[in-house]
Design brief:
heterodimer, A: alpha+beta, Heat Shock Protein 90, 31% helix, B: alpha/beta, Transcription Regulator spoIIAA, five-stranded mixed β-sheet, 4 helices, 25% strand
């Protein structure tokens, strides 16, 4: 098996369940431990952003397609919430003192830093956000 | 349904230790609860707080935000907040957010108690 699909209508209270299902899928695909943990940190942020901002906390459909080809894992998140391209979101300046930082932006930054590449497109009213992570040959 | 935040609190010689029991910290309401518990501890006069997250395997930025709010409160009250037993992935998250130098992070609770 090299592909898992998870689809559910979610509320903020369901983020953890969606995350746990994704983690289980990554385990079933034998994604090595470190890569899995890092990818989950990114995936958790992406799911949270969709639920809290894309759907403003209201119930909305989230589909996650996880695919592994050799040493590369691709996770595609599809939602019909507010159109939002995370790849164009400004980078967080971590040199700005904590006291002067504006709220927001940390989640997108974690997604960027914990993945090797991110892609986005909008088609037929849906956001498609793709996370790519190389597993680097680490054993599961 | 997600659980509520699970915290075991201990006061050892004036140092408050908060051990988080949850393995996964993602729920937005739980993040609000965490912010409230930490800021209230400083409002109640705690000057040294150690947050032990040895059980936590995954955590979202909502909780990093919660720690930042609590960290600002600590600074305002001239108190200190430190972390211990942070997993390598979460530690990487702290560093990516520029928080690794803002907060003291100790490998073990005993180190935190000795050095905070």
């Amino acid at each position: 098996m090299s592909k898992c699909i998870i689809e559910k209508k979610v509320l903020p209270a369901d983020i953890e369940e969606m995350s746990n299902l994704s983690d289980l899928a990554l385990k079933k695909l034998d994604i090595p431990e470190t890569a899995r943990q890092e990818l989950m940190m990114a995936l958790d942020e992406a799911i949270t952003n969709i639920v809290l901002h894309g759907y403003s906390g209201k119930k909305g459909n989230v589909k996650i397609i996880i695919d592994r080809v050799n040493d590369c894992v691709t996770v595609e998140l599809i939602d019909s919430g507010v159109k939002f391209d995370p790849t164009r979101y400004p980078e967080l300046d971590v040199n700005v003192p904590i006291e002067e930082r504006k709220a927001g932006g940390m989640g997108v930054e974690l997604v960027r830093k914990f993945t090797d590449e991110t892609r986005y497109y909008h088609r037929d009213g849906a956001n498609h956000f793709i996370l790519i992570k190389k597993t680097g040959g680490e054993n599961a | 349904m997600p659980e509520r935040i699970q915290i075991i609190e201990e006061n050892r010689n004036g140092i408050y230790i908060m051990r988080i029991g949850n393995a996964v910290l993602l729920d937005p309401k739980m993040a609000d609860e965490m912010t409230s518990i930490l800021t209230q501890s400083f409002d109640s006069g705690a000057l040294k707080v150690i947050v032990n997250i040895s059980n936590v395997t995954r955590m979202s930025s909502l909780f990093f935000r919660s720690f930042i709010i609590a960290g600002k409160k600590a600074k305002e009250k001239k108190a200190v907040m430190a972390f211990c037993n942070v997993s390598p992935t979460i530690r990487a998250g702290f560093d990516m957010m520029g928080l690794g130098s803002y907060f003291k992070i100790y490998p073990e609770e005993s180190h935190a108690l000795e050095n905070i």
